[in-house]
Amino acid sequence: MDAAYVSDINREVSPAAVDEFAPLQIGPLKVWPPVVLAPMAGVTNYPFRALCRSFGAGLYVSEMVTAGPLVRGDARSHALARFGEDERPRSLQLYGIDPVIVGEAVARLVGDARVDHLDMNFGCPVPKVTRKGGGAALPLKWRLLRDIVRAAVSAAGDVPVTIKVRMGIDDEHLSYLRSGEIARDEGCAAIGLHARTAAQFYAGEARWEAIATLKDHVPSLAVLGNGDIWEAHDALRMMRQTSCDGIIVGRGCLGRPWLFRDLAQIFDGRLPDNPPPFGQVAKIMLRHLQDALKWFAVPSDPASERATVHAFRKHAAWYTKGFRGGAALRAELMGLDTWAELRDLVRRRDPAEPFPPAAMRAVRGKSGRRQRVALPARYLEQLDDASPPSPEAEIAFSGG
What we know:
The protein is an alpha/beta fold. It has helices spanning 46-55, 67-71, 75-80, 99-111, 127-130, 142-156, 176-185, 208-217, 232-242, 259-267, 278-296, 302-319, 326-333, 339-347, and strands spanning 24-26, 29-31, 35-37, 59-66, 91-95, 117-122, 161-166, 168-170, 173-174, 190-194, 222-226, 246-249. The chain has 2 domains: 14-274 and 371-385, Aldolase class I (TIM Barrel); 278-354, no CATH class.
């Protein structure tokens, strides 16, 4: 890899040595390299998962599905729980606040032979969710967390269950160590830690030292580190610094699905290839949209093509971030209605234009300032309460 594409913080990070790392074991699943695609609302649908998988092996998790709507037969939830015929293993993230409903949702997913791995989401920092006691606020109520995890693991049978959490709601109310104990004691296959608090939202740097602390606290449980994996070198640096068992990639692969190729190469002891020039990026982008149209659009309905293209515009902006004339290019991208319009737009660009080094660590996707976490009234006085929170704490729709 050209030195221009390695950030200063990673200059001294060497590729993996032979046998330095073991495959990530999640129940019967052996994952190599030890890399997991994070579930992201509106992003990790089947076309994107398949594209990422084409660049390198790993585990690719679906968009989040909410337990209540799934149990009630919500069409959107069932659509999000759909996998490609060639997709193995089938990994799905589930969110729920009530042990009974979560158990029923898991039993349905497993009974339909729909999933090979279930991840439980307990890390959402969005105020409208934490304000009702859900998302990242829920693990503070450790008895409720235990009951939900127990119900999921019991209903899953031989299908491995993992959970994903944040450090806590803020520095005064950390919950991740107890969450690790619950995951270990209730039979989870792994715990993923986004090394930020809910108060941090997506701001600042991830605090990798918390991942190391969690691994020290529950050494028998597989721990996955999440936060600030922008380059393949970051993954090795995280694993070496924290002794975690695998890494979770989120925003770093937005507009850059070849990051999974880079990760496969560096875990195999090789320097990653340079990122593709604009012409190759354009081909990947067009392929991505074409696959999305095959998956979502109805050929006889032009409106469905427009809706799919409109939903794809954010991906187009991520793919082209940092290239010359970015502001004007993004303005044109935001006006796209068809695949042909995207094809014609990228054809007017120089295909040899190199990938901009500054875009390697450019933030794509969610961002934001620190926040004061909204909680229900007197929530912190009732942390031993195992009662499920208000139904409004369950996200009313799947996907985020």
